[in-house]
Write a sequence for this structure.
């Protein structure tokens, strides 16, 4: 019996239908046995006999793929493929699919949630209240402010749509600019530098590539307003975390909401000590609807590719 490896821990948490679909199709399902993101060494052990993989953010680089000699299809649980060696998969003629659109609304919701939490200092207020401290904490206004979106894909467009309810001016940057959509929705094109300098809130929705790695660096933070709020629900590695720590410690920006880190959990100890940082555990897509959509779509994609 052919085997399917499933690495995302949230796969089929809402319903076991995705697993039953694979079993009905005649496959043996192997779930992540570690309860966390797997290391390369653990992936080496797990991929040797599998015909298909539903992959989260676990490493699936050339070294791992070389060991997976029976692999015929890869289904990404999500849309970011920076953890997959696409060139080598293409060389091996292994199709790679993504669950495009399955978690768009969930991630856009969470990006805006982080924006609100940081600006209004919700976590700090909650902590004080639990200590029976009813003193007031002053936050930032959001309504009518300027939002800068780096990456105007499906999720970036979702964030822009939510910003309309707050009557925000929306600036956006994308390498593939959708002028028609921008014009119809009142979105203004801006370069990243213009966004750093003009935006009160900056939300990142770019893929991690050689061009975007450490894109938000010390220079970027130096250009931002002192009361700016940075949100990242895209990929760890786009923000230079050492520069982020310095910017937050020195009050270079007001605060940040970060759901993704270059290493998860992050190893930088100072990140855990920052009062003006709201941290997430890469959970922007973790809603019941999004998890169910991603699980079902990943299985459908995998079965299609294995059949073909």
């Amino acid at each position: 019996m052919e085997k399917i490896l499933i690495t995302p821990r949230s796969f089929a948490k809402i319903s076991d239908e995705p697993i039953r679909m694979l079993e009905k199709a005649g496959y043996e399902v192997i779930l992540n046995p570690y309860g966390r993101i797997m290391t390369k060494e653990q992936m080496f052990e797990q991929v040797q006999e599998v015909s298909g993989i539903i992959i989260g953010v676990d490493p699936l680089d050339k070294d791992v793929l070389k060991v997976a000699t029976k692999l015929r299809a890869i289904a990404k649980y999500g849309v970011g493929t920076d953890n997959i060696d696409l060139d080598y998969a293409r060389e091996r003629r292994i199709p790679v699919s993504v669950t495009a659109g399955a978690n768009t609304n969930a991630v856009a919701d969470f990006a805006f949630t982080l924006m609100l939490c940081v600006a209004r200092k919700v976590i700090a207020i909650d902590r004080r209240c639990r200590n029976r401290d009813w003193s007031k904490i002053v936050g930032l206004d959001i309504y009518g402010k300027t939002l800068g979106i780096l990456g105007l894909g499906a999720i970036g467009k979702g964030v822009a749509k939510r910003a309309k309810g707050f009557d925000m001016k929306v600036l956006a940057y994308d390498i593939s600019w959708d002028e028609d959509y921008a014009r119809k929705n009142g979105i203004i094109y801006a370069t990243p530098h213009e966004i750093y300098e003009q935006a009160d809130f900056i939300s990142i929705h770019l893929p991690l590539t050689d061009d975007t790695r450490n894109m938000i660096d010390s220079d970027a933070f130096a250009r931002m307003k002192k009361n700016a709020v940075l949100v990242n629900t895209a990929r760890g590695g786009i923000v230079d975390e050492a520069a982020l720590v310095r910017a937050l410690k020195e009050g270079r920006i007001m605060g940040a909401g970060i759901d993704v880190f270059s290493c998860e959990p992050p190893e930088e100890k100072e990140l855990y000590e920052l009062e003006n940082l709201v941290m997430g555990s890469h959970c922007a897509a973790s809603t019941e609807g999004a998890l169910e959509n991603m699980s079902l779509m990943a299985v459908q994609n995998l079965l299609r590719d294995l059949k073909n």
